[in-house]
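seq as requested:
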Amino acid sequence: MVRDPSHDEEPPSPAEVLDALADDAAQRFIAALSEPKTASELSEECDVPLSTTYRKLEKLTDASLLSESTEIRRDGQHTTRYAVAFDSVTVSVDDGGARGIAIEFTRSDRTRDERLAELWTELREET
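struct tokens:
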């Protein structure tokens, strides 16, 4: 299973994104994700309790800041890996009448075919 926020139908609210980014542990997770990692790996690397790590990762994923994918291992166990789902996040004041805050994500330009090829490669490596 893959949860890719770049394909969500409805984007997160600016408040949801800003709230997720305001958290110190969440910022450490994003900084530590130079490559996809499990919750356990992030918990250990960032010195955050595992239960807190799961809550923060869910918040970051819901805010479209992380993507998650499920890795199926030979032993039948499933492992969820998290990756940063953006290249940059821009916060701006929208002067369109209501003066609200707008959030814009810059994401990788990988095509659906490239993502599928990457998934198949990962699957082949596991079998």
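The CA atoms of residues 3 and 73 lie 18 Å apart.
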